[in-house]
Amino acid sequence: MDHFKCENLSISFGGLKAVNNVSFRVEKNSIFSIIGPNGSGKTTIFNMISGIYKPDQGRILCESQDLVGFTPDRIARRGIARTFQNIELFSNATVMDNLLLGRHIHMQTGIFTGACLWGRRSKAAREEILNREIVERIIDFLDLQSVRDQYVANLPYGKRKLVELGRALALEPNILLLDEPSAGMNTEEKQDLNIWIKDIQIDFKVTILLIEHDMNMIMGISDRIYAMSQGEKIVEGTPREVQSHPEVIRAYLGEEHPC
């Protein structure tokens, strides 16, 4: 069952076609990866899906609803969360506070209103408790207990990437867009991330769209892969099919820095 698809997406910037007639379907609870060299249009596709860019043509369908023209916050409320190539966190806030900010669309009261209402049987206090319980589960899941009260600015890059992943999970998404989640991580962190992404897919029942340069990760965890170059599709298929495609081998796998 595919519950998310892009149909004939195209967008140009200054006369340059950044994405040209891209179409794909993503099955529910699967990991769908998009690969291609820098400038091939991968992040532009994510920007269109998340409402940052509006495509010149095409449709973005989530459970048959066209999301084109939706604002980013409305798309978030539709259950689509995202991480970024360049980390988008509040550096002068703690890990806990950054994760709580990921709960904003679920909050009837202000983000931190409940903090001053402990002990009262108020809606705000109950909401605060619920949101903190959800964030605590994410902290445990991503093994962030040791840094929960630290400021993000003081964390190593790999930990910041995990905090951003955690904030996206705090949204309780149905669809998660991961834009180069392993960038800046060491080998051990990447291995842990592989496990977490699979656990998110299986335990959280989340559909994952992944952009990643690490081909070992891509080939190891993807259900299907969409390879593109210069804004257009080269091939789509299983990891084995894409890995053995002559153009993919020539364009990506044979390079020192694939994808």
Can you walk me through this structure?
- The structure is a single chain.
- With 259 residues, the protein is an alpha/beta fold.
- It has one domain: P-loop containing nucleotide triphosphate hydrolases (Rossmann fold, 3-Layer(aba) Sandwich).
- The protein is built from nine helices and ten strands.
- It has helices at residues 42-49, 72-77, 95-101, 123-141, 157-170, 187-203, 215-221, 239-243, 246-253; strands spanning 2-13, 16-27, 31-35, 57-62, 65-66, 80-82, 175-179, 207-211, 224-229, 232-237.
- The strands form two sheets. The protein has a six-stranded mixed beta sheet with strand order 6-7-8-3-9-10, with helices on both faces. Strands 2-1-4-5 form a four-stranded antiparallel beta sheet, with helices on one face.
- The longest helix is centred in the middle third of the chain and has 19 residues, at 123-141.
- It is globular and about 55 Å long.
CATH superfamily: P-loop containing nucleotide triphosphate hydrolases
Report the count of strand segments. 10
**How many individual helices?**
9
How much of the residues is beta strand, in percent?
Answer: 15-25%
Described by the principal axes of the CA atoms, the overall outline is globular
Please indicate the count of domains: 1
Radius of gyration: 19 Å
Order of helices and strands: EEEHEEHEHHHEHEHEEHH
CATH top-level class:
Alpha Beta
CATH fold title? Rossmann fold
CATH architecture: 3-Layer(aba) Sandwich
What are the segments in which pLDDT stays under 50 over at least 5 consecutive residues? Answer: 111-115, 255-259
Q: How would you classify the helix and strand content by structural class?
A: alpha/beta
Q: Fraction of residues in helices?
A: 25-40%
**Main beta sheet strand tally, sense and closure:** 6 strands, mixed
Question: How would you state the average pLDDT, rounded?
Answer: 87
